[in-house]
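How a chain folds remains the central question behind the approach discussed here. In the encoding step, the backbone of a single protein was reduced to a row of integers, each denoting a local shape. We regard such an encoding as a compact summary of how the chain folds. The sequence in question and its structure tokens are set out directly beneath this paragraph:

___
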Amino acid sequence: MITAAGAQTVTDMRKRDIVDGVSVGRFSMERNGGYIAVNMLLDLSGLDVDNNRAVLLTPWLVNGRDSLDLQSVGVYGRRRYYFYVRNGVSMLSGKDEKSYRAAEKPGDIEYHAMVPYAGWMNGSALSLHRSDYGCCNTLLAEQDGMLGRHSEAFFPELVYVRPQGRAEKRDSLEGSAFIDFPVDRTAIYPDYRRNAAELGKIQSSIDSVRSDADITITSVWLKGYASPESPYAHNRELAIGRADALKRHIQRLCRFEGDIITTGYEPEDWEGLRRYVERSNLAHRTRIIALIDSDLEPDAKEWKLKSTYPEEYRFLLQHCYPALRRTDYRIAYTIRSYSDVEEIKRIMRERPQKLDLNEFYLVAQEYEPGTDEFTEVFETAVRMFPNDPVANLNAANAAMRRGDLAGAERYLAKAGDSPEAVYARGALAVRQKDYDSARRYLNEAQSLGSEQAGVTLEQLEKERY
């Protein structure tokens, strides 16, 4: 389980005088995952700095005894500036400081800073600290001006579910090859009509997995189809013979061991013919579909189609039947499992389809919740497994973590009804400030065995939402 908090964004578009000579506009401070981002427009047009003086402006985050200085902005009089440059030392606050000569300072500075979030920052105040220095780094004066305060909105703990790794990762490639055979022949001629390209499709599919050392081909399945013209018994012989011919052709090219290649056949592809007619604009489309669906024997059905609807039959013979003479293929394979996180990261970038959900989860643990990297892992996982409840649940939690409530709601629609999924719907309702729905979901999740739901219900009551 990963604790997550939703931060209230502090925004002030007004221009305010903060310390002598410095105004601030377009100020914002917000929590972004594991970081706090501070943005503002510093107006330095009223800041005057003598030749032998320096002014250091430092945003300062403080809460009790805990504090943190953000990146400073230094403005130096001519003598002070060249003192640092000539002596080869860092400026007053160090090498990361944004430094300017007083005579060349811009009127406005777009200030951006991002720092890692820590628990003490909840309730912290951010002020702008002005320090004036003379020669020998003598501190002459100090001044503070309040910028804003950071506070966390109530947001319950999110529960990510670790998926079960597959005992064996199996996948397959599927396709269809439209190999042309001379009339009543079953022999394959690679150079005949489109055969070079169609045979190449199967070869490329096989090569795409054979060339990967992590993949082992377990079977190649071929199914030959013929179109309905000619007697059924003859078409059956053609379908069987043509599938066997393709099997021998692939075996000669690939040299598979054992009985990896298997074949099947469909003497006449009436289902394919029906799909074509259903999408067509044929004059007697409805009657032809009824004929195809009838209980007539294949030869009687084909004769009635030819004799009753001769014009449509000729059209189908020319435009539909060639596409029914095909071979479907499926290449099944297994993929080895991965445990090294760096290797999984590389595969996620290159071929994420090789990973299972547990491997995605291992990578996600390497990142801080709410960061872009963390979110990307779960979004990639749900793209690879779009209908998996656990993938959708974890993606919903990641979306909530970064404030994408619409995305979280979309993922939760496919997350199932596990205790964790019901709890996540309650967490989302809290973020949406729908506290009645939140209590309903959390009570349901608690009844299903979710301990965290009980904790969150107590927090809701404590916060008096």
